[in-house]
Write a structure and sequence with these properties.
The protein is mainly beta. It has one domain: 3-Layer(bba) Sandwich (Glucose Oxidase, domain 1), CATH 3.50.30.50. It is built from three helices and twelve strands; from the N terminus they run ββββββαββαβαβββ. Strands 4-10-9-7-5-11-12 form a seven-stranded mixed β-barrel. A hairpin with an 8-residue loop joins strand 2 and strand 3.
């Protein structure tokens, strides 16, 4: 058995969505061994920073929140598909229509996002899932979909990909690190933090290869 950590490292200078300063994590030392008997850190962290999942409330008024979520849905088998060969910077229906995607599958897409140098800052041309591909995933009634970008769609008016998936309670997982992963079937464990009333949560995501 081999375990792959596919989570982003949370640190103050990490890549965040559109390089927005407001999304950068803030680490504050509130007690240290020189001035106190213990060490303690306070962290300010946007829910959509790093590896995280989106809940329906993120895009849908009165949508489900984290405390409505059955976390066991993220302890599941999953199918990983390699799309690093794409010439376009989006995933469309034509790219995935031949994939073996079935009801209740959790799907993860590897793209060239995984090979982008994050030290350069946010990649405004990241590979995303377009509306036509989202319609296929919705029709298949999958459990969830993950991608190696901080957004599953990019600069789309009215967020159609998010809405198509979230209105059917399909999990969206963003910010995966997949450069060491090969196409195939794995066990996914991605436990979210137990939060009240939020539109998502950070996860520590791993893939287990039997």
């Amino acid at each position: 058995m081999k375990i792959y950590d596919i989570s982003m490292l949370i640190e103050p200078n990490m890549m965040v969505y559109k390089d927005k300063p407001s999304k950068k994590p803030v680490f504050k030392n509130v007690a240290n061994h020189e001035d106190s008997t213990h060490y303690e850190t306070k962290v300010e962290l946007d829910i959509h920073c790093g590896t995280h999942i989106d809940m329906p409330l993120h895009m849908l008024r009165d949508g489900k929140t984290m405390d409505d979520f059955d976390f066991t849905r993220l302890i599941t088998s999953c199918k990983v598909f390699d799309l690093t060969h794409l010439k376009n910077n989006y995933i469309c229906a034509e790219d995935i229509k031949h994939f073996n995607i079935e009801n209740d599958d959790f799907i993860i897409f590897i793209t060239n996002n995984s090979y982008y140098d994050k030290s350069k800052g946010f990649d405004y041309d990241f590979v995303y899932v377009d509306e036509s591909a989202a319609k296929i995933l919705k029709h298949k009634k999958i459990n969830g979909v993950g991608i190696d970008a901080l957004g599953i769609e990019r600069s789309k008016h009215n967020h159609p990909t998010h809405k198509l998936l979230l209105e059917d309670d399909i999990i969206i997982m963003e910010g995966l690190e997949l450069k060491d992963i090969q196409e195939g079937e794995y066990q996914l464990i991605a436990l979210p933090i137990k939060l009240k009333g939020t539109e998502g949560s950070w996860v520590r995501a791993v893939l287990i290869e039997e």
